[in-house]
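A further point concerns the way the authors explain their paired sequence and structure data. Nothing conveys this as quickly as seeing an actual entry. An entry of this sort, consisting of the sequence and the corresponding backbone structure tokens, reads as follows:
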Amino acid sequence: MSHALTAQDLFSEMRRMTSAERIKFFSLLTNQAFRDDDFTHEQVFGHLQHEPLSAWEAAEYLEVSLPTLRRYVQAKKLRPCHTVGRNQMFSAEDLRAYKRNRRSQVSVTAGKFDGDSVQ
């Protein structure tokens, strides 16, 4: 009867391998063993699509500081979806749209600096 290989057994066997064999092993491990763990953004974060984000989470999502997020709100570039006490909550859909719009404006501006005509 064969017994299951334990982590300690595997480690001991790996220590006896040549460095070339260890490289082959880790290459196989990374390329094949966890192939099904390559999830899409929707699979990982889809359940949060309709959940509001706190100001801190919104700032992190937009890759800006919290004071910058507050300036966006003051300038009416962003609106919280609702407020709980003094805490502003933001819609993930609104943040995604704002980020997409901001990214396209940056690329248009970059095109103008490169001398390209953008119309």
